[in-house]
């Protein structure tokens, strides 16, 4: 890489599978909900159908387009109240995340969360981790009209931070999340916490793929903004 590196204008984190290893709990809440309502599903397909997506997108897929707003709201509350209660004792940051967040904070890099989850869940997780002081803003799926892979949530987050999207680095774990970040014009670090690194390399345009935050440094983030950026899919 070239030595002409500069620090990111901002670092934006997805939540589930990035801040916390919550996806197994999200999958289980969907399994329980679909079974209670007698909705057929294929367990092997469920991760790609629900992870990274906003709930209303998944509700339309499983329950059909005729659900009313009230019915979607009731299903959402049922789904997420169960998640918060079940996940609360297990809320802890992914290994290496706290160190990276603190390094970004010391370097003066503004940080935010951009998650498809409802606001209640985002606030719950961030507060459970004790990360609220580090984030300038929390942007949830409640604030956008279009869910990932649409770039709306990332563009909105950049506006809230007062930075250009091209100067931001986003941290994602899902296919739709990575696509959303790249469509927003951001650099994207893919965390192989939910899907295998090989799949992320083959199926996404992530700029850097890592097994976890333990191997990631501030210097690696600066390297993403080198004039001689290496091809998509570089792995650490």
Compact description:
This protein is α/β, with parallel strands linked by helices and 236 residues long. It has helices spanning 23-36, 46-50, 55-63, 69-87, 97-106, 119-129, 152-161, 175-183, 197-203, 218-223, and strands at residues 10-13, 111-114, 135-139, 168-172, 187-191, 208-210, 234-235. It has 2 domains: 10-21 and 91-235, Rossmann fold; 23-89, Putative phosphatase, domain 2 (DNA polymerase, domain 1), CATH 1.10.150.240.
3D architecture notes:
- By secondary structure, the protein is of the alpha/beta class.
- The chain has two domains: 10-21 and 91-235, 3-Layer(aba) Sandwich (Rossmann fold); 23-89, DNA polymerase, domain 1.
- It is 42% helix and 12% strand.
- It is built from ten helices and seven strands.
- A seven-stranded parallel beta sheet has the order 3-2-1-4-5-6-7, sandwiched between helices.
- The longest helix is centred in the first third of the chain and has 19 residues, at 69-87.
- The chain is globular, with a radius of gyration of 17 Å.
- The two termini are 14 Å apart.
- 42% of the residues are buried.
């Amino acid at each position: 890489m070239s030595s002409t590196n500069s620090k990111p204008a901002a670092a934006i984190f997805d939540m589930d599978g990035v801040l916390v290893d919550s996806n197994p709990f999200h999958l289980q809440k969907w399994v329980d909900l679909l079974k209670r309502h007698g909705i057929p599903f294929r367990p092997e397909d469920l991760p790609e159908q629900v992870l990274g997506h906003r709930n209303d997108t998944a509700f339309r897929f499983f329950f059909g387009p005729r659900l009313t707003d009230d019915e979607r709201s009731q299903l959402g509350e049922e789904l997420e109240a169960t998640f918060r209660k079940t996940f609360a004792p297990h809320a802890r940051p992914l290994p290496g995340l706290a160190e990276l967040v603190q390094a970004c904070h010391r370097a003066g890099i503004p940080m935010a969360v951009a998650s498809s989850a409802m606001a209640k869940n985002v606030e719950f997780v961030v507060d459970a981790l004790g990360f609220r002081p580090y984030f300038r803003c929390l942007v949830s799926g409640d604030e956008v009209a279009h869910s990932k892979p649409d770039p709306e949530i990332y563009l909105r987050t950049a506006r809230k931070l007062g930075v250009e999207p091209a100067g931001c680095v986003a941290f994602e774990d899902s296919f739709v999340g990575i696509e959303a970040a790249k469509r927003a014009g951001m650099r994207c670090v893919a965390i192989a916490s939910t899907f295998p690194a090989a799949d992320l390399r083959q199926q996404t345009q992530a700029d850097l793929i890592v097994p976890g935050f333990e191997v990631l440094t501030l210097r690696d983030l600066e390297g993403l903004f080198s004039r001689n950026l290496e091809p998509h899919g570089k792995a650490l």
